[in-house]
Amino acid sequence: MQTKIKRRSMYNIICKIVAIFIRISCKCINKKGTDLPGKILRKIDKNVLKKLSKNFDEIIFITGTNGKTTTSNLIGYSLKKIGKKIVNNYEGANMLDGIITSIAIQNTSKTKIAILEVDEGSIKKIMNFIIPTKIVFNNFFRDQIDRFGEIDVLISTISEQIKNKDIQLILNTDDPFVMRLDKHGKNNKYFGLEENLYDFNDTGITESKFCPVCSNKLNYKFIHYSQLGIYNCLKCGFKRKNPNYSVSKIDLNPEINILINKTKFHTKMLGVFNVYNILAAYSLLKQLELSDNEIEIGFSSYVSLNGRMEIFEDKNNLKYIINLAKNPAGMNVSLSIANNVKNDLSISYLLILNDNYADGLDISWIWDADFEILKNQNIKNIICSGKRAKELALRLKYTDIKVKIYVEEDIKSAIYLLKNNNSNLNIIIPNYTALIKTKKEVERELK
């Protein structure tokens, strides 16, 4: 026992020293030093993650295409608010080395729960070292095809990893892709939305409306958006299962208030698509035996600080909203933010697209996003930035939107240009590797 504690302390010290060094000198990476400490520890001991994780009672993975960072952070925040000692990779470093760093730095002898956002393409690699007790699956959309392959390939890979394991699955029953995993796991639980709750402005991007078991066309009673809805297969019987945890009412004012299993929850979160993230977090917290009163403590005070529907305001009361988008479904969500804005308010957009490895080198997904959503908004102008700004501008040209489109590849200069537009609402949509720099420059510019 003493040896284990000494080893954990040694790893903790090494991680902290490396992380501090990176954050002081840090031009080498753009993730605040979250990956390199773990990489160094793995060089010292290839089984470091297995050894660091031995004493946890619960190891919980939060994964899927969209919403895993928000869901993971909301869960972690809520547990901390009621005094639970946890590990949570809240900075979003969701691959192997980032997870090693988070556990090594935060873990103590009193820490018994790990809430880990996990990159869906990294599940296989991570599960070589640790087996979770629970996994929350939010949704599956096409994302970084050059890394993950098509959705069928990704789900098949995940299935191989979780089959015949003693893992409880918390599944979005509204997503037929997610429900393909239901044949695995033990005592699985399901979450979903009741029909006719809200007009999600579905733009027709549909990953698949075919049965994952027999390939027959699914029969949809109701569609929330894309392939999420209430469905069944008339041929083989595959269907949406009744949720253990469901939303029966949504109020946006503009913050989200929702009714889950007859209990009303108040939040400071924005964007109706966050309803699924709130519901996923609630489902997991109930499985950890938290009461509704304990959950409300976290939900009512949580504020996003990671570029997911994060709001800034300048001295002239002009608003800036940053929301990450890295695939067609995520882009459509972000483009829909201003759909209900009053016509007398002017809107400007800043769209930022990089093609670094972590983004996915293939940016063809922008042609699947429905930029035509913008045609019905009172847009003053659109600025395209990032390494692939020109491709974004070309994509916008094909929407035939009658607004001025600027191309400014440098993010700092693009934000300066945006600020000087003096629009009432400024919507900034960066993809993954552009997010941190974008947020930093917005904060600097608005000081």
Key attributes of the depicted protein:
447 residues, single chain, 15 helices
What is the element layout, followed by pairings?
Layout: H1 2-25, H2 36-44, H3 48-52, E1 58-63, H4 68-81, E2 86-88, H5 96-106, E3 113-117, H6 123-126, E4 134-137, H7 145-148, H8 151-162, E5 168-172, H9 176-179, E6 189-193, E7 219-225, E8 228-232, E9 245-252, E10 256-260, E11 263-266, H10 274-287, H11 292-299, E12 308-313, E13 319-323, H12 328-335, E14 347-352, E15 379-385, H13 389-397, E16 404-407, H14 411-419, E17 425-430, H15 435-445
Parallel strand pairs: 1-3, 1-4, 2-3, 4-5, 5-6, 6-9, 13-17, 14-15, 14-17, 15-16
Antiparallel strand pairs: 7-8, 9-10, 10-11, 12-13
Helix pairs in contact: 1-2, 1-5, 2-5, 4-10, 4-11, 14-15
Model description:
It is built from 15 helices and 17 strands. With 447 residues, it is an alpha/beta fold. The strands form three sheets. A nine-stranded mixed β-sheet has the order 2-3-1-4-5-6-9-10-11. Strands 12-13-17-14-15-16 form a six-stranded mixed β-sheet, sandwiched between helices. It has a two-stranded antiparallel sheet with strand order 7-8. Helix 14 crosses helix 15. About 3% of the residues have low confidence.
Radius of gyration of CA atoms, rounded to a whole number: 22 Å
Structural class: alpha/beta
Helix count, DSSP H or I runs of 4 or more residues: 15
Q: How many strands appear in the DSSP assignment?
A: 17
Give the biggest sheet.
Answer: 9 strands, mixed
Regions with little confidence, pLDDT below 50 for 5+ residues: 24-31, 144-149
Q: Average pLDDT, to the nearest integer?
A: 88
EC number: 6.3.5.13
Binding site for Zn(2+): 211, 214, 233, 236
GO molecular function, one term: ligase activity
Subunit structure: Forms a heterodimer with GatD.
